[in-house]
Each structure stands twice: as C-alpha cells, then as structure tokens.
Design a protein that fits this description.
By secondary structure, the chain is mostly helical. The chain has 14 helices and no strands.
Amino acid sequence: MSYGTTLQKEAMHILKLTSRTFYIPIKLLNPVLRETVGSAYLCMRAIDEIEDHESLPSDIKQYLLRSTSKLLQTGFDPQAYRQLLKPYENLLPEVTLRLHDWLHVCPAGIIDKVKESTSMMADGMAKWVEQEWFVQTKEDLDDYTYYVAGLVGVMLSDIWEWYDGTKTNRELAIGYGRGLQAVNMLRNQEEDAERGVHFIPNGWKRRDMFEYASIHLNMADEYIESIDTKNILLFCKIPLALAKKTLKALNSGKEKMGRSEVESTVKEILNEKNM
C-alpha cells in the first residue's frame, strides 16, 4: 500500500472521528471528490480545533491561528508548523497536529484554493477570538459566520469548478455555509452561554435567529439548483436536509434530531437519487 493510499485511509478515519455530519456525505463522493473534499474539510477542522479549544489561552489561540495563516500563504513548511505547535502538542488533537498530512492528500490542481480559504478562515477566527466572540450586530454575525462557515461554501464551490467545471454562485455558497452554522448556533446556544460566548445580536430574540437560519437555508436551496453533477448534488443535499430537520426539531422544543431520524433522512435522499 502506498504512502498516499495509507494517508487517504487515515484521513477518512480522522474525518469519521471529528464530524458525524460531514463524514456521511463525504464518504458517498466518488474517489477523486472524496479525497479532495475530505482533505479540505480536515484542513479547516484543524484550525477550528484551535479556535474552539477549551484550555488554550486567548493570546496563544490568536498566535497559533495567525501563524498558521501565514504558513498557508507560503509553501507551508511542515517543520515550521511542527515547531509552532510543539509547546502545545499535548493539548491539541491529531486533526490539528497533522495539518500537513491533509494538505499532502489534496490534489495539486486545487490545493492553492484550499490553502487560501483555510488561511482566510484562520485569520478571521483569530480576530473573533480576540473579540471574545462577542456578536453585537447582524453585521457582526454575518462577519463571524462568513469566516467559520461561509468560507467552507466558497471552498466547496472552488472544488466543484476544478473537478468538472460546475459553476455556482459564491454568495449563495456563503449563504449555504451560514445556514448550517446558524442552526449549530441555535442548537448550542445554552452551551455557548455557559462558556460566556454570545452569538445572538443585541436586541434579537431566539425567533430572529431562527429567521436568520431559514433565510440562509433558502439560499442553500437556491445554491444547489445550479448543480447538475449527481454526486456533488447528493453531497450538498445531505447536510442541508439534516440542518432543516434539526431547525424543525429545535422549533418544536427538541434539543436535536435522533440518530434514527438522521439515518432515515440520509436514506430518503439516497432513494431520491435512485428514482
């Protein structure tokens, strides 16, 4: 088994451990897209784990995120990255420590776009760590959700275009990411409040956040209308359907969707594909 094949298998294993939601649709992609989207997602997850870390002080998070962003803007020196993380390697998860491996798996034709989006995300996250994630206005909310989720949509659009020329609207791609993120914020609102994080703009009620999520999930619907490639369409539909059903569950007072509902939702979409 080649080094590359071993790395790809390890990437899928780490993906399964870090994201139940995205592991399912990524696993259903064809080999080229699976390898590309999987590695791109892990790159972004690597920096996300720094932003979300419970033990790292704010100034260290900012330093690590900004330094990683700079490394991604150049050739990405794995030695320099290892040195950067060395004092914190016992605190950080494997997905973060192995960022170079995830870049290594990414196909040469798209890696620069993946590095660009991940670098921008790291810089944006550092800014919001510095601001202690204190969202005061809708503009603040838009800015934060752009960096942590809208850029995922942009990166995916870059991948679709590289893969087979599929062109999508970048604003709608950002809306797709924001919609998924807004649902996560609603789901984790109490947990975030306990750790002193405030994502709801001043003067907003919970219903305003529901409306924000709905508007962006509608943009996600519009986004996927421009996609004809069945495998890409299948990938996009699954997280969107899960987000919509989670929003519905939260609206009716449930904490989240049950595992069986997740499985049946995925099955429904697979059945649509086979009709």
